[in-house]
C-alpha cells in the first residue's frame, strides 16, 4: 500500500469502529470491546508505519477535490510532515491505552457501548485534524472533537455537575470557534485556497493583507480549544467526566489540537508581531495563574486539569517565541505523562473511594493498596516537575531555552515575548514542582485510618500505566537528539543556564512544599475531616461518579475543602481563598455575561408572554366567539341537519328563480 | 301520456319521503323514506327520458341507464344502512334517531332536549347558507 493509502486509513479505521460500535452496541454487546480497542491499535500501527515511511524528510502531500464548491475550493488533502507523523503516533498511543483502560474502568457501566464509540469517533477526528492538509477538513475534525467532548464530559449525566460542565465546555469552546471560523475565511480569501501549503506560500511571499487581524481571530479559537486564558474556565469543570476521558481529551490530545494548529500555521502568526506578543501574554497569564490555582485545588483531577492548562501555557509560550519544535516536543512528552497521571488518578480514586486530596491525606497506606499507580504516578509527577532525567525535563528545557534565546536578537519573535514567557516559565517551574509535590504527599503520605481495601485493580487498568510510564521516563532523553530532524532542525538540547535555573527552581518549589507539609502534617491527624464516598464493591466508574457527586455536599464546593492542614494553604497564604476558585474568573464571567444574558432572556420572556401574546389572544377573540355560536348548532340530531339543508336549498332555489325571472 | 302525471306523482312521492326523513324517529322508517325519495327521482328520470327521446330523437336512453344505476346503488346502500341500524340496535337496545346524538358538541353534558333550540339553530344555519 502506498503511504497515502495508509495515512487515509489512520483516521478512517476508528471512524468505522465508532459507526459499527454505535450500530451493534445493543444487538451484539460481545463485539463492543473488540470494536473499541482493535481500530485504535490498528490505527496506531498504521500511524507508526506512516511515520517510518515519512521519516522526517520531505512532507507528503496528497489532495483530491470531490466537487467544486464555489470561489475557494475545498479539497480532501493530506499534509504529513514530521510534526503530523509524530503527533499522530502520540494520539494513537494515548487512544489505545485509554480504550484498553476503559474496558476495565467502565466495566459495569450500562452506557459503555456509546461511550466507547464516542471515544473512537473522537480519536478519528483528532487524527483527521493532525493529518489534514486543508483548513476546512481540519475544521470538521475540530468541531467533531468539540461535540464528542460535550457528550463524554456529560457521561455521568445523572449528576448536575456533569450536565453543567458539559454545557459549559461546549459553549466556551464554541465562543472561541466563531472567530476561528471567520479567521479561516479571511485567511483563505487572501490566499485563494484552504490548502495549508498554499496558505503558507502566500504568507512567505507577503500576500497576507491583514496578518494581525487573522492571527488574533485564529487565536480565539485556539484559546478555547487549548484552554488558554481567558477561555480556560471549561477545563477544570470538565473533570466531571470519566477519568479516561479526562486523560484522552482533556489532557493529551484535544487540548493539544490548538497548540498543534498554531505550530502548523506558525508563519501566519509570525507575520504579526502584535499577535506574537498577545500570544506570549496569554501564555504567561495562563501559566502562572493555573499554577497558583492548582496549588489550592482539593479534587485530585482538578489539580491535574489546572496543571494541563499550565503545561499548555508552556507550549503556547514556545510558539510565541517562534519555536514550534520545542512546543511540539513538549506536547509529545506532556501527552504521555499527563495521560499517565490521569489514568493513575482514576486508579487512586477507585482505591480510595474519594477524589478529595484532603480525605486521602487522612488515609494511611494508600500507596500499598495501589503499588502500580504509586510508582507510575511518581514517575509522571517527576516528569511534570521537570526533574532530570525524566522526559518532562528535556521538553521543558527546550522550551525555556527557546524563550531564553528569544530574549536576545532574533528575527522570529519580538524580544518582549521572549522576556515575558521566560519569566513566567521560570515562575511556573516553581509552582509546578510545588503542586506536584503537594499532590504526591497528600495522596501517598497520608496519616490516619487505614485505607480501605478493595482488592487488586483490574489488570487492564494497571498494565497501561506501565506502558505509558516508559515514554514518561525515557522519551525526552532518547529523543532530543533525533527530533530536530523531524521538526524544523532547530536544536532541542538543554542549555546550561536554563537547565540549572529550571531544575534549581523546581527543587526549591518541591522542598518548600515538603517543609510546609512537615509543618502542617503534625496537626493533620488531630483534625478529622470528611466522608469517604461510594460503595467499594462498585466498578471504578461508579465510584468516581459518586465521589464527584458527593464532593460538594461533603466539603462545601467542587474545588476546595475546608482543610486547615493543606500545605497549599500555608504556601499561598491569603491567595489560597482566591486560587481555590480559579481567581474568581467564573464569578466575573457570571457577572459580566451570564447574568446580563439571563436578565435579557427574562425580559424577552416577559415581552413575549405579556405583550405579544396579548395581541395574539385579542386577535383570536372574535373567531372564538363566532366559533362558540356556530358550535351550538351541532346538536347531534341528524334530522335537524337535514332540515337545515332543506331550508337552505329552498332559499337558494327561490333566489335562483327570482334572479332568473329578473324581478 | 302527458309528462305532468308522472312529474306530479314523483313530486308527491318525494315530499312523502322528505317528510318521513325529517319527522320519523325510527331509523328503519327513515331508511324507507330515503328509498321513497330515490324512487321519486327514478320515476322522474324515466319519464323525462321518454319525453326527451320523443322530442330530440335521442336513442341513447341515458335516463333509463341512469335509473338502473341508481337502483343498483340504492340496493347496496339499503344493505349497508340496515346493517348499521341492526348493529346500533344490538349495541344500544334502540334504533331511535333522536337518541343517537354521539356527534353532538359536548354531548356528555346532555342538555335539555329542546325543540325550540333546534328551531332557533335551523334559522341560524339558514342565515349562514
Question: How are the SSEs ordered, and which strands pair?
Answer:
The complex is a heterodimer of chains A (663) and B (129).
Chain A: H1 3-24, H2 32-54, E1 60-64, E2 76-80, H3 82-105, H4 112-131, H5 135-153, H6 160-191, H7 196-204, H8 211-225, H9 234-237, H10 243-252, H11 254-264, H12 266-270, H13 273-294, H14 300-320, H15 324-352, H16 357-360, E3 363-364, H17 366-369, H18 371-384, H19 391-406, H20 415-444, E4 449-450, H21 459-479, H22 483-486, H23 496-524, H24 540-555, H25 567-572, H26 575-580, H27 585-631, H28 638-661
Parallel strand pairs in A: 3-4
Antiparallel strand pairs in A: 1-2
Helix pairs in contact in A: 1-2, 1-4, 2-3, 2-4, 3-4, 3-10, 3-15, 3-21, 4-5, 5-6, 6-7, 6-8, 8-11, 8-13, 10-14, 10-15, 11-14, 11-15, 13-14, 13-20, 14-15, 14-19, 14-20, 15-18, 15-19, 15-21, 15-24, 18-20, 18-21, 19-20, 19-21, 19-23, 20-23
Chain B: H1 4-23, H2 27-56, H3 62-92, H4 115-128
Helix pairs in contact in B: 1-2, 2-3
Structural account:
The complex is a heterodimer of chains A (663) and B (129). Chain A is mostly helical and 663 residues long. Among the domains of chain A are: 272-572, no CATH class; 581-632; 638-663. Chain A has 28 helices and four strands. In chain A, the strands form two sheets. Chain A has a two-stranded antiparallel sheet with strand order 1-2. In chain A, helix 6 packs across helix 7 (196-204). The longest helix of chain A is centred in the last third of the chain and has 47 residues, at 585-631. Chain A is globular, with a radius of gyration of 30 Å. The termini of chain A are far apart. The mean pLDDT of chain A is 85. Chain B is mainly alpha-helical and 129 residues long. Chain B has a single domain, classed as Helix Hairpins, CATH 1.10.287. Chain B contains four helices and no strands. Chain B has helices spanning 4-23, 27-56, 62-92, 115-128. Chain B is elongated and about 55 Å long. The relative contact order of chain B is 0.10. Chain A binds chain B through residues 629-640, 642-644, 646-648, 651-652, and chain B through 18, 21-23, 30, 97-98, 100-105, 107, 117-118, 121-122, 124-126, 128-129.
Amino acid at each position: 500500500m502506498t503511504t497515502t493509502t495508509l495515512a487515509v486509513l489512520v483516521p478512517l479505521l476508528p471512524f468505522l469502529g465508532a459507526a459499527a460500535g454505535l450500530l451493534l452496541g445493543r444487538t451484539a454487546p460481545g463485539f463492543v470491546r473488540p470494536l473499541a480497542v482493535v481500530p485504535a491499535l490498528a490505527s496506531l500501527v498504521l500511524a507508526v508505519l506512516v511515520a517510518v515511511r515519512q521519516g522526517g524528510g520531505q512532507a507528503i502531500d496528497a489532495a483530491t477535490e470531490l466537487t467544486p464548491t464555489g470561489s475557494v475550493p475545498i479539497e480532501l488533502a493530506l499534509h504529513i510532515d514530521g510534526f503530523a507523523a509524530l503527533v499522530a503516533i502520540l494520539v494513537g498511543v494515548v487512544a489505545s491505552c485509554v480504550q484498553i483502560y476503559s474496558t476495565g474502568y467502565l466495566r459495569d457501566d450500562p452506557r459503555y457501548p456509546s461511550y466507547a464509540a464516542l471515544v473512537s469517533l473522537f480519536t478519528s477526528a483528532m487524527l483527521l485534524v493532525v493529518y489534514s492538509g486543508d483548513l476546512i477538513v481540519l475544521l470538521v475534525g475540530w468541531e467533531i472533537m468539540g461535540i464528542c467532548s460535550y457528550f463524554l464530559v456529560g457521561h455521568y449525566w445523572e449528576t448536575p455537575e456533569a450536565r453543567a460542565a458539559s454545557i459549559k465546555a461546549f459553549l466556551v469552546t464554541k465562543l472561541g470557534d466563531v472567530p476561528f471560523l471567520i479567521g479561516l475565511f479571511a485567511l483563505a480569501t487572501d490566499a485563494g485556497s484552504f490548502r495549508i501549503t498554499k496558505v503558507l506560500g502566500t504568507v512567505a511571499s507577503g500576500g497576507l493583507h491583514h496578518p494581525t487581524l487573522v492571527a488574533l481571530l485564529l487565536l480565539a479559537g485556539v484559546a478555547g480549544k487549548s484552554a488558554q486564558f481567558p477561555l480556560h474556565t471549561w477545563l477544570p469543570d470538565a473533570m466531571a467526566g470519566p477519568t479516561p476521558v479526562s486523560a484522552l481529551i482533556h489532557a493529551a490530545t484535544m487540548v493539544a489540537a490548538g497548540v498543534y494548529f498554531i505550530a502548523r500555521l506558525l508563519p501566519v502568526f509570525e507575520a504579526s508581531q502584535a499577535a506574537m506578543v498577545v500570544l506570549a501574554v496569554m501564555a504567561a497569564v495562563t501559566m502562572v495563574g493555573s499554577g497558583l490555582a492548582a496549588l489550592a485545588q482539593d479534587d485530585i483531577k482538578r489539580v491535574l486539569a489546572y496543571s494541563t492548562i499550565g503545561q499548555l501555557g508552556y507550549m503556547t509560550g514556545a510558539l510565541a517565541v517562534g519555536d514550534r519544535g520545542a512546543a511540539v516536543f513538549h506536547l509529545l512528552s506532556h501527552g504521555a505523562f499527563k495521560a499517565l497521571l490521569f489514568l493513575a488518578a482514576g486508579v487512586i480514586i477507585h482505591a480510595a473511594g474519594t477524589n478529595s486530596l484532603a480525605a486521602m491525606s487522612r488515609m494511611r497506606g494508600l500507596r500499598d493498596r495501589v503499588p502500580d499507580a504509586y510508582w507510575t504516578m511518581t514517575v509522571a509527577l517527576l516528569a511534570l516537575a521537570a526533574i532530570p532525567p525524566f522526559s518532562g525535563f528535556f521538553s521543558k528545557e527546550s522550551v525555556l531555552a527557546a524563550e531564553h534565546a528569544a530574549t536576545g536578537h532574533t528575527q522570529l519573535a519580538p524580544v518582549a515575548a521572549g522576556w515575558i514567557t521566560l519569566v513566567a516559565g521560570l515562575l511556573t517551574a516553581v509552582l509546578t514542582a510545588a503542586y506536584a509535590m503537594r499532590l504526591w504527599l497528600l495522596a501517598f503520605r497520608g496519616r490516619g485510618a487505614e485505607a480501605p481495601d478493595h482488592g487488586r485493580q483490574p489488570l487492564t487498568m494497571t498494565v497501561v500505566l506501565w506502558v505509558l510510564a516508559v515514554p514518561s521516563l525515557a522519551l525526552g532523553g532518547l529523543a532530543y537528539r533525533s527530533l530536530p530532524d523531524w521538526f524544523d532542525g532547530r536544536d532541542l538540547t538543554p542549555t546550561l543556564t536554563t537547565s540549572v535555573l529550571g531544575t534549581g527552581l523546581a527543587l526549591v518549589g518541591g522542598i518548600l512544599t515538603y517543609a510546609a507539609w512537615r509543618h502542617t502534617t503534625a496537626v493533620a491527624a488531630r483534625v478529622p475531616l470528611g466522608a469517604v464516598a461510594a460503595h467499594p464493591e462498585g466498578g471504578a466508574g461508579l465510584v468516581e461518579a459518586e465521589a464527584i457527586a458527593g464532593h460538594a455536599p461533603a466539603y462545601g464546593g467542587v474545588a476546595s475543602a475546608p482543610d486547615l492542614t493543606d500545605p497549599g494553604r500555608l504556601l499561598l497564604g491569603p491567595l489560597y481563598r482566591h486560587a481555590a476558585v480559579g481567581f474568581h474568573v467564573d464569578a466575573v464571567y457570571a457577572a459580566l455575561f451570564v447574568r446580563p444574558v439571563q436578565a435579557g432572556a427574562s425580559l424577552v420572556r416577559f415581552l413575549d408572554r405579556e405583550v405579544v401574546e396579548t395581541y395574539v389572544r385579542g386577535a383570536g377573540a372574535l373567531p372564538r366567539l363566532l366559533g362558540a355560536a356556530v358550535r351550538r348548532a351541532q346538536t347531534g340530531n341528524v334530522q335537524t341537519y337535514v332540515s337545515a339543508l332543506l331550508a337552505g336549498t329552498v332559499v337558494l332555489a327561490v333566489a335562483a328563480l327570482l334572479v332568473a325571472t329578473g324581478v | 301520456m302527458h309528462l305532468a302525471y308522472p312529474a306530479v306523482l314523483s313530486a308527491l312521492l318525494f315530499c312523502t319521503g322528505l317528510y318521513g326523513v325529517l319527522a320519523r324517529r325510527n331509523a328503519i322508517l327513515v331508511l324507507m323514506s330515503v328509498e321513497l325519495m330515490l324512487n321519486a327521482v327514478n320515476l322522474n328520470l324515466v319519464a323525462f327520458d321518454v319525453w326527451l327521446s320523443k322530442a330530440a330523437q335521442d336513442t341513447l336512453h341515458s335516463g333509463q341507464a341512469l335509473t338502473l344505476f341508481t337502483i343498483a346503488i340504492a340496493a347496496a346502500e339499503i344493505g349497508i344502512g340496515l346493517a348499521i341500524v341492526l348493529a346500533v340496535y344490538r349495541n344500544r337496545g334502540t334504533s331511535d334517531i333522536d337518541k343517537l346524538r354521539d356527534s353532538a358538541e359536548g354531548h356528555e353534558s346532555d342538555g335539555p332536549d329542546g325543540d325550540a333550540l333546534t328551531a332557533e339553530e335551523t334559522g341560524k344555519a339558514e342565515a349562514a347558507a
